[in-house]
């Protein structure tokens, strides 16, 4: 990797053990993490922490609100559902906690391991004041049902 590349990691505010570990220099176990990013609920291992210390320049935490906004943006523009743990990377950019103006930025987005029912329930319970989020969750439900119907139809089951 080029020495000119700066690696900035993103982590949910409610499960920030990597962030705390990185800046303290030793593993700080995750205790009672609370985030929509269920794939980032576990504590760091010694092996993972060593890789982070060797390759990461900075770790920034991201709120669940901006993680959800990132998922929504990817859905609206690309019609791809990504899991919350992957959306923190775009959430970091959207939340603007660090200045990235004038920078060339690459983000890694992976995984579609999303429990839509759980996500929709979380969206409605946490963000019910935002009509826009509710509209998005309804669109997801409709899309999910339509895709499931098409899948069943293609298999000759409907």
Q: Can you walk through the features of this model?
A:
- The protein contains six helices and two strands; from the N terminus they run E-H-H-E-H-H-H-H.
- With 158 residues, the protein is mainly α.
- The protein folds into two domains: 1-114, Rossmann fold, CATH 3.40.50; 115-158.
- The protein has a two-stranded parallel sheet with strand order 1-2.
- Helix 5 runs antiparallel to helix 6.
- The mean pLDDT is 83.
In short:
The chain has 158 residues and is mainly α. Helix content is 51%, strand content 6%. The protein has a two-stranded parallel ribbon with strand order 1-2.
SSE blueprint and pairings:
Elements: E1 8-12, H1 17-24, H2 46-55, E2 58-62, H3 64-78, H4 84-95, H5 116-127, H6 131-154
Helix pairs in contact: 3-4, 5-6
Q: Can you count the helices? A: 6
- Read across the widest sheet, the strand sequence of neighbours is 1-2
CATH topology of the largest domain: Rossmann fold
Number of distinct beta strands:
2
Helix content percent band: 40-55%
Q: Tell me about the biggest sheet? A: 2 strands, parallel
Summary tags:
single chain; 158 residues; mainly alpha; Rossmann fold; 2 domains; 6 helices
